[in-house]
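FORM 7B: Structural annotation worksheet

SECTION A. Query
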Amino acid sequence: MDDRILLVDDEQGLLVMVETLLRKEGFQRIAKASSGLEALRHVQSASFELIVLAVMLPDMNGFDSARSRSASDSSFFMASFC
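SECTION B. Predicted structure
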């Protein structure tokens, strides 16, 4: 599949687990970030069809990260409560 996905969480084990599951489903274009600011840097340089975003992050919460995005962006944000 050609969709770009961004996974954002400060728990490396969780990032690896979700990435592994997505790859088994055929998704190959997966980027990872461990903080809200790192996620914002990713989305400034590429577009993503799906962003899986943790709520609790070390530098800013996931909701603030999502609000920092442009309102015209078509990416879908899903808050993860894991």
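SECTION C. Observations
The helical segments are 12-24, 36-45, 62-67. The chain has a mean pLDDT of 82.

SECTION D. Sign-off
Analyst initials: ____
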